């Protein structure tokens, strides 16, 4: 059959079929971009293609083997990537219902700001990681303990108050899809030269944000200050209104462009009011967009 015959045999159903398959594959790849599930999906696609070729060429043994491998691999992938699948479904739901996403975001921001105010007033230090598109656990030294609870001020306070019986208070709290996902997460420490006012909590906040697109809220126990860190840049001390603004700016950031990995793009950093200017050989200099100075996360 030549190309002309093939085109002549095409019906409108084939076209609809092709367009739908293409759209589904494109949407799935966009949603999985930057997650650890994508390489696994590519592997499955390659195995499926190899199985198809083996069957077409009548290579029976390999064809049967690949069929069995694929059957089991799909079950294994569902178990291994159940978190990613859950997030994928949540995101699809949020994209289909922007209004419900907005309401969830507003309620989450209100809870976060109220919790931070309470903690700072009580001089309780905390590190809250708001996960973006990239899986921060891949870069954390210790993934902590699973919590999987709704975002509530009472829960956040209970998890952060230092007490010998509260084993989760040491480390960071991971907030994923507006839920408390984990506690006791240990962030990678930034290796940059930092202002001596900042100890390991702030170093961890900067470290985790250097290699992810997460927004990190850091509450200082010592000074009772609230700051945010994005793309390795730590803000100045914020009041509640400013904290709220920064979180909204981060939530409303544009999606990362193709191939972009790691810290929030310059666009998203600018959106939250902080931009990063590389200084010659001396790390980075941070400035608040509004003119207020951001603390130099990487200044030596
Ligand atoms: N890498 C890390 N990841 C997550 N949490 C951390 C990390 N390092 C330290 N912490 C948390 O920070 C707490 C206090 O650390 P430290 O006093 O050195 O930080 P700091 O930056 O000076 O903060 P603060 O101003 O609140 O004292 C630790 O008890 C621990 O709960």
TrEMBL record:
GO terms for biological process: cAMP biosynthetic process. It holds the Pfam family DAC. Its EC number is 2.7.7.85. The chain crosses the membrane at residues 6-29, 36-53, 59-81. One of its GO terms (molecular function) is adenylate cyclase activity. The keyword Coiled coil does not apply. It comes from the Bacteria. Residues 252-300 are annotated as: Disordered. Residues 82-240 form the DAC domain. It catalyses: 2 ATP = 3',3'-c-di-AMP + 2 diphosphate. SUPFAM superfamilies: YojJ-like (SSF143597). Belongs to the adenylate cyclase family. DacA/CdaA subfamily. Probably a homodimer. Catalyzes the condensation of 2 ATP molecules into cyclic di-AMP (c-di-AMP), a second messenger used to regulate differing processes in different bacteria. This is Diadenylate cyclase. It comes from Enhygromyxa salina. The gene is disA.
């Amino acid at each position: 059959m030549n190309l002309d015959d093939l085109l002549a045999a095409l019906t409108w159903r084939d076209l609809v079929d092709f367009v739908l398959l293409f759209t589904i594959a494109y949407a799935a790849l966009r949603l999985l971009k930057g997650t650890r599930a994508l390489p696994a999906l590519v592997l499955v696609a390659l195995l499926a293609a190899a199985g198809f070729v083996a069957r077409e060429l009548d290579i029976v043994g390999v064809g049967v083997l690949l069929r069995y491998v694929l059957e089991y691999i799909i079950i294994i992938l569902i178990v291994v990537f159940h978190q990613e699948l859950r997030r994928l479904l949540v995101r699809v739901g949020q994209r289909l219902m922007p209004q419900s996403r907005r309401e969830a975001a507003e309620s989450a921001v209100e809870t976060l700001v109220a919790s931070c105010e309470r903690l700072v007033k009580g001089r309780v230090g905390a590190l809250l990681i708001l996960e973006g598109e990239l899986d921060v656990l891949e870069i954390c030294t210790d993934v902590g303990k699973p919590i999987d609870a709704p975002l509530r001020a009472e829960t956040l306070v209970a998890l952060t108050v230092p007490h010998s019986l509260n084993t989760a208070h040491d480390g960071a709290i991971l907030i994923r899809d507006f839920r408390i996902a984990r506690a006791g997460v240990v962030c990678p420490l930034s290796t940059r030269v930092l202002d001596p006012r900042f100890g390991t909590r702030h170093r961890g906040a900067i470290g985790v944000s250097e290699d992810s697109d997460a927004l990190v809220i850091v509450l200082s126990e010592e000074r009772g200050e609230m700051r945010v860190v994005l793309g390795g840049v730590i803000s100045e001390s914020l009041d509640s209104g400013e904290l709220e603004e920064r979180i909204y700016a981060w939530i409303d950031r544009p999606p990362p462009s193709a191939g972009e990995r790691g810290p929030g793009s310059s666009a998203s950093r600018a959106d939250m009011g902080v931009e990063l200017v590389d200084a010659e050989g001396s790390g980075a200099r941070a400035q608040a967009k509004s003119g207020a100075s951001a603390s130099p996360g990487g200044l030596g």
